Request: fold
Amino acid sequence: MNIPTFFDIKIDALNDEGLGCATYENKRINIPYVLPDEFVSVQKVTQKNYPDRFELVEVLEPSEHRVNPACAYFGQCGGCQLQHMSESYYNDFKCNNVNQHLKDQSIEFNCDRLIRVSDRSRRRVTFKVSRKGKKIELGYFKRQSHDVVNIDHCLLLTQRLQDLIQPLKLFLLSFLVDEKPKNLYVTEADNGIDLDLELPLKKLNLGQLEKINQFAYAHDIGRFAINGETIIEIKKPLIQIDDVQIPIDSKGFLQATMDSNVILKDLVLDALSDQKFQKIADLFAGRGTFSVPLSNIAKVEAYESDVIAVQDLKKALQQSSKPIKVIERDLYKMPLNDKELEAFHAVVLNPPRAGAYAQSKQLAMSKVQTIIYVSCNPKTFATDARLLLNNGYKMNNITLFDQFLYSSHIELVAVFKK
Reply:
């Protein structure tokens, strides 16, 4: 069946990525930036890597839940998918996504508590940068494309990162020579900015080194790296968790917003406030988001596979008397078994998007009384939760945490008791 280049169609529903679902002559198609029950005009786009790509041309009959997006780049930039939703519909969409993944695992649990981060709180971003003639384009990729959407502002970013956009465009003129997009990793640490530019450059000339030096001092750049190699480090980028200052690196895991560490920490500690614990395991511990505050209520063993994160956390704790033991261990290949878990009265679990199936199998067979599961992927969480529920655990509550505003992603914190 040949689908025409332009056609009109009614949207049936949204999938969990926020894409509109519709049927054209028995073929299911997905369309961005639409809402259920809308009648829209659509264009089929021929693209090598995306043979079934469809783009919104015009909303002919809008939904009552449609609002004007706050950002002028919405619909061009691929960074946000959901700015066209009213606040109530947006919240329901995120809650319903989680509930559906739970239902797929035969878990009847209605999640309706949603906490959102503040606007302009994102402290970490990967910009796409390229040169077009005598100008630098800096922004994000267009959806399903390697075309850079050039931006002058982003509603998600902290003010310090916002203020850096125009200076970066001028600075990068001395380094970018072609239109091929490069990655620029930018993090606002607690004591300055960390920059890491991917660039096919083997050697810097003296003029470029001088420009890096001037730019760093002018814009509070603590560290500037190219391809992960430090060019200048005026001060090591740090984040502070309670009273511990922990080094970070440009590509290592870090909570994306300023609010996240505080909100997630409070949710975890609140879930453990009903009793006293002597020893807690922090699994997939990263750089101590939970290990450090947990050490105020119990002894902590922190397990993490990222070698650099383990080294950084150990160094940070050298000047501290906190009862934290940091252990390098790949919990996918070698999860803590039920015997090892006998040492712990509670476990905090914060895996990557892939979930923690192997570790959850061991936890399910353990005698750990309290498990706090922090997840950034409801689908893998639901699979792991089913293992726990099948083995005697009860899920007491789930709190949803919207850390990635206007995207289809959602974080959650769930409490299991045995």
Summary: The first strand starts at residue 6 and ends at 10. Residues 117 and 403 are 6 Å apart (CA to CA). The chain has a mean pLDDT of 94.
